[in-house]
Design goal:
Elements lengths: L1 E3 H4 L9 H10 L3 E7 L5 E13 L7 E6 L6 E5 L9 E11 L3 E2 L3 E3 L2 E3 L2 E2 L33 H4 L5 E6 L10 H11 L14 E2 L8 E4 L5 E10 L8 H9 L7 H13 L3 E5 L7 E6 L5 E3 L5 E3 L5 E4 L4 E4 L3 E2 L12 E8 L1 H11 L4 H6 L8 H14 L4 E3 L3 E3 L7 E5 L1 H8 L5 H10 L3 E5 L2 E6 L9 H12 L20 H15 L3 E2 L5 E2 L2 H5 L24 E2 L4 H13 L5 E11 L10 E11 L5 H15 L5 E4 L6 E11 L2 E9 L1 H6 L7 E6 H7 L15 E10 L4 H12 L3 E10 L8 E10 L8 H19 L2 E2 L2
Parallel strand pairs: 12-23, 13-16, 28-31
Antiparallel strand pairs: 1-11, 2-11, 3-4, 3-6, 4-5, 6-7, 6-10, 8-9, 14-22, 14-23, 14-24, 15-22, 16-19, 17-18, 19-20, 20-21, 25-27, 26-27, 29-30, 31-32, 32-36, 33-34, 34-35, 35-36, 37-39, 37-40, 38-39
Length: 800
């Protein structure tokens, strides 16, 4: 919204500097994006009055002019402009003048004829081409009559002042007008607003002799339609003061009738449209929907294909305008127009927005209509336009009007409790000041039984409840005047959940061991399960299928992270990376039922994979142990896993605790590695993070260092070759109880002196008491019991 300060001050009596006005408006909610100066950077440009025009003797496209610039002698200027006539007033840049862009005017000759200056177009004076008056668009700027030759152009044309560029929020369409911003300014500076008095001096005839009726066939899309007739119309340029104001707000002057409608649209915020009355058939206006596929030619000579959702303005025979967007070429006001029918209407904002978007033709009118304007403004705007037409002598107003207003919008009341104002704003404002602020906003308010009762004008559709009025009071009083205070009430400190903290600990351990984190897609190809050699009846093949997949390779949700990990390791291997250690914390998705009618269960898993010269099963097991120690999880056991076809059957273990499976770790099956094109051993672990989180104990209990020495006993046992050493350690710790502090395996031997189906394992058993120094007799019974239990349970014998 562009707000010229000079225009604003016509309605609000303020003498403040533009910068102060800008700052104060911003503080009260009307955010000013920029202050735009109107004065252009040029010097020595004066008013010239053309006295004669003669053809150039040596050039067909040039003319020689004699111009009165207020000096004793006429100024001779040679120009190629073809829109000038004798008697025209034009801007003349004298010799020595400097124009925008660094242009300097010098004496010269054009085809041998001296030229002592230059006639200027608007663009040459730094005025945007988009606002150049229609008659001067492609040539010299033709000025209005009655100017004084030689007068400085800036002074004569009032090319000074500033314009505020204001950001208006969508809920305040009333501020999309000069008068709307005048109300805001008046309230901001606590001064009265002076609105124009609408009065038509002379009305003739009767509108009933011109128009029979206005019919609205869709009241949901058209709230009100108001029309008046103007006769004896004379189409010509509008007065300069009107052109100047339109140019200041970014609108090109066209002619007096069009300029009046645009002027009122900017002044009051209500778009208007003028039809050539003689081109309307049947003395009636019908507002109805278009027909699907119908083609309509608009004012810009473009054919528009319409739909049944679009609203049309029609006469008795044809469509004459797209409601709220643009008129048609078949009813356009032209230089020959003698009588006009002036439309002021109110349309459904959403419908206008969708229509303009569908047709790709957002206009100044549609931009306002789409924000749901006040239907109560329709008659005032139309009458204001008639008043201006009469004042500038553009036509004679016909008495009467036709107003079709099916459901009238009336003012409503909203009450506000003064104590509630203080509570919500956090500051104290006198009740009388509250009432004064609302009244300055043109919201008629009074105190009744200790409560402020306000009558809300129909153009303030954004005010519905008490809090809306409190906001009005607060912003005009000044939010900057409210003392900042801390929040009252309990505050919750934002932090990560316990599960996220545990996941961070897992990452910390893995990073510390040299692994890199990766992130892969949660959706994979069904063929991935074939590559890891899953059996056809495996439960992990029961997947969630994506309804709109990116492609076959991303069509199902993963039930295991292993395929993604192997894909990453394979890519590194194929690129010549000789060592890759990676891990991923991600979700796998398990269907909750066969029909897949509910969301799947998401399981957070940890998967890490390794390959390289210094990697084996025990390296991976050590990494898992470090995670368990960091999380305070003890009592875990490892057992051989031979049924998982993705892993090597002799080099894979399940991690369990109290018979609950936590995960699987081991060497990947050679056939699986072949599917991924990897020709060296790869080790992968996949562990259920949710179970780790449930078992985690981050609280640490410390005890004093032992005072008494330990006794160590070494034993070498001969056992079955395929007996897991974990079974041996379990028996030793179970029998030894609290006396056994530690059990260390230090040797495994197979070969000579040992049967082929046997192996020798050697352990160091550390005994310690926290109460006394142990003697041999103190541990003899426990040590013998361990040997006996090993022999009875595992058929283990001491090696001799």
């Amino acid at each position: 919204m562009l707000l010229p300060i000079q225009w604003l001050k016509e309605y609000v009596q303020i003498e403040n500097e533009t910068k102060e006005i800008s700052d104060r408006l911003t503080l009260t909610g009307s955010h000013v994006d920029a202050i735009i100066p109107l004065e252009k950077e040029f010097t020595k440009v004066v008013i010239g009055h053309i006295q004669s025009i003669e053809k150039h003797p040596d050039a067909d496209k040039l003319v020689v002019t004699q111009v009165d610039v207020g000096e004793e002698e006429l100024l001779q200027i040679v120009t190629g402009a073809n829109n000038i006539s004798v008697g025209d007033y034009v801007p003349i840049s004298l010799v020595g003048a400097r124009l925008p862009g660094g242009v300097k005017i010098k004496k010269g000759k054009l085809r041998g004829v001296p030229s002592n200056g230059m006639m200027c177009s608007t663009q040459e004076l730094g005025i945007d081409d988009s606002v150049t008056p229609k008659g001067s668009k492609d040539g010299i700027w033709i000025l209005h009559e009655g100017l004084t030759p030689g007068m400085d152009v800036k002074e004569a044309l009032e090319l000074r002042g500033e314009v505020l560029d204001i950001e208006i929020t969508p809920n305040r369409p009333d501020c999309l007008s000069i008068i709307g911003m005048a109300r805001e300014t008046a309230a901001t500076f606590r001064t009265p607003v002076k609105l124009p008095e609408i009065k038509i001096e002379n009305e003739v005839d009767d509108i009933k002799d011109y128009m029979d009726s206005i019919e609205i066939k869709d009241e949901n899309l058209c709230n009100r339609y108001y029309g008046r007739v103007i006769k004896d119309v004379k189409i010509e340029a509008s007065p300069y003061w009107m052109q100047k104001r339109l140019m200041d707000v970014g609108i090109r002057p066209i002619n007096n009738i069009v300029d009046v409608t645009n002027y009122v649209m900017m002044e009051m915020g209500q778009p208007l449209h003028a039809f050539d009355y003689d081109k309307l058939a049947g003395k009636q206006i019908i507002v109805k929907r278009a027909q699907d596929g119908q083609v309509f030619t608009t004012l810009d000579d473009e054919e528009r294909k319409l739909t049944n959702d679009m609203l049309m303005i029609c006469d008795a025979e044809n469509e004459v305008a797209i409601a709220g967007v643009m008129g048609g070429g078949n009813s356009e006001v032209s230089d020959d127009t003698k009588t006009i029918f002036l439309e002021a209407a109110n349309f459904n904002g959403r419908n206008i927005r969708l229509t303009a978007k569908a047709l790709g033709m957002r206009t100044d009118a549609s931009a306002k209509f789409e924000k749901d304007l006040d239907p109560g403004m329709v008659d005032k705007a139309c009458d204001r336009a008639c008043q201006l037409i009469e004042e500038i002598g553009a036509g004679t107003i016909v008495k009467g009007q036709i107003d079709t207003y099916p459901v009238k919008r009336t003012a409503w009341e909203v009450s506000v409790r003064p104590e509630r104002v203080e509570k919500l704003l956090g500051t104290t404002i006198a009740v009388d000041d509250m009432v004064e602020i609302l009244n300055y906003l043109q919201i008629e308010s009074r105190i009744q039984d200790g409560v402020i009762v306000s009558t809300i004008p129909t153009y303030r559709n954004d005010i519905k409840i008490e809090a809306d009025l409190i906001e009005e009071i607060g912003r005009i009083n000044g939010f900057d005047g409210i003392e900042p205070k801390p929040f009252l009430g309990p505050l919750t400190k934002g932090e990560k959940s316990d599960s996220r903290k545990i996941e961070d600990l897992i990452k910390e351990v893995l990073h510390g061991q040299g692994l890199n984190e990766i992130t892969t897609y949660s959706f994979i190809s069904p063929k991935a399960y074939d590559k890891i050699e899953l059996p056809e009846d495996s439960i992990k093949r029961k997947v969630v299928k994506i309804l709109n997949p990116l492609g076959e390779d991303f069509s199902v949700m993963r039930t295991t992270l292993m395929p993604n990990m192997l894909e990453v390791l394979s890519k590194n291997y194929k690129h010549g990376v000789d060592k890759a250690w990676a891990y991923e914390l991600g979700n796998s998705f398990i269907p909750t039922n066969e029909e897949l009618l509910t969301l799947p269960h998401e399981i957070k898993s940890l998967c890490f994979g390794l390959y390289g010269n210094d990697v084996d099963f025990f390296k991976m097991k050590d990494m898992v142990e470090k995670i368990l120690v960091r999380l305070g999880i003890d009592g875990c056991e490892y057992s051989a896993e031979k049924l998982n076809t993705a892993f090597h059957p002799g080099r894979t273990a399940n991690l369990t605790r109290n018979n609950q499976l936590l995960g699987t770790l081991g060497e990947v099956h050679p056939k699986v590695l072949e599917n991924y094109g990897i020709k060296e051993r790869v080790y992968v672990a996949e562990i259920n993070v949710e179970l780790l989180v449930s078992l985690t104990t981050l609280t640490r209990t410390y005890k004093a260092l032992p005072k008494y020495p330990a006794i160590t006993r070494d034993i070498a046992l001969v056992v079955e070759r395929d007996l897991p050493v974990g079974e041996i350690e379990k028996v030793i710790k179970g029998v030894g109880g609290q006396l056994v502090e530690n059990v260390s395996l230090f040797d495994i031997y197979t070969g000579e002196q040992i049967d082929a189906d046997k192996k020798s394992v050697a352990y160091s058993i550390h005994y310690r008491s926290y109460e006394k120094t142990l003697q041999d007799d103190d541990i003899k019974e426990t040590h013998d019991g361990i040997l006996t239990a090993l022999e009875e349970k595992l058929s283990a014998t001491l090696r001799k």
